[in-house]
Structure formats: C-alpha cells, structure tokens
Design brief:
The chain is mainly α. The protein is 67% helix and 0% strand.
Length: 137
C-alpha cells in the first residue's frame, strides 16, 4: 500500500510529460536541430527547480519517507567521464527520440515500438551492472 503513492506520482509524471510534449519525438528532433526553444525551456526550468529544491533540502535538513536525513555527497570531478557519459546518453536520445523518463509515457500512449528501446535500456543497465567494478568511477 505504501508503494501506491509512488505509482500515482509516476502516472502523474507520465501525463505531464505527454501533455507538455516532452515525450514528443518531433519536439526532441527540433531540439537537436536547434529549431525550437520548447525543450530547452523545459530542461532549463527543470534544472532551475532542482537547484532551488536541493538548496531547500540542504538548508532545512529535510528527511525522506523513512525519517532518514537526505544528504548529498560530493562527486569526484572528472571531465572525461562526463563527456563520455553525456555523449553516449545524447546519442541514444537522438537515435531513439526518447530519454528514460518519456520512454514509459510513450509506451503507455501506444507507441509500442518503444518497447524495443526499453528492452535495450534494460540490457544496457544490466551490462553496466556486470562491468561496474571494472569501470573508472
């Protein structure tokens, strides 16, 4: 019963993605061709919102649903891994027309071919899990 709130939030997130056209292949295509500000505006708004919320969580010492204090750990600075990871993510996004969030919204709205993308996303995650200890983090 506790998981129902997360399922409902996921459904709401999917509806918002679909209605705002963030899950639209055409909007993503426009973004990668620098023809429209729509997606850049949405990503920028999400980034600004995340920065504000993280600062609130840090300053107010917010706890999670289990009562544990939410903390943010600093990450090692490494240009190479961010360039490599960003390039791989961007190529996948450009080739499929969907990043992980909208994938589920698109499948739910009837674009069944995204099931292939989901299958390979799961396969890629599984392979990463196998190779994680051998990769430079």
């Amino acid at each position: 019963m506790k998981a129902i709130k997360f399922i409902l939030i996921g459904i709401l997130f999917g509806i918002i993605l679909y209605k705002s056209e963030a899950a639209s292949w055409y909007r993503i295509y426009e973004m990668f061709q620098f023809r429209s500000f729509h997606m850049y505006g949405m990503i920028g708004t999400a980034l600004a919102t995340a920065i504000i919320l993280v600062q609130i969580i840090k300053r107010k010492q917010v706890t999670d649903s289990n009562g544990m204090l939410i903390t943010f750990l600093d990450k090692d600075k490494s240009i190479t891994r961010y360039l490599a990871g960003g390039t791989i993510f961007g190529l996948g996004w450009a080739l499929t027309g969907a990043c992980p969030g909208p994938m589920f919204a698109l499948i739910g709205s009837g674009y069944w071919t995204l099931g292939i993308v989901l299958l390979f996303a799961i396969l890629g995650t599984w392979i990463y899990g196998l190779l994680r200890n051998k990769l430079p983090h």
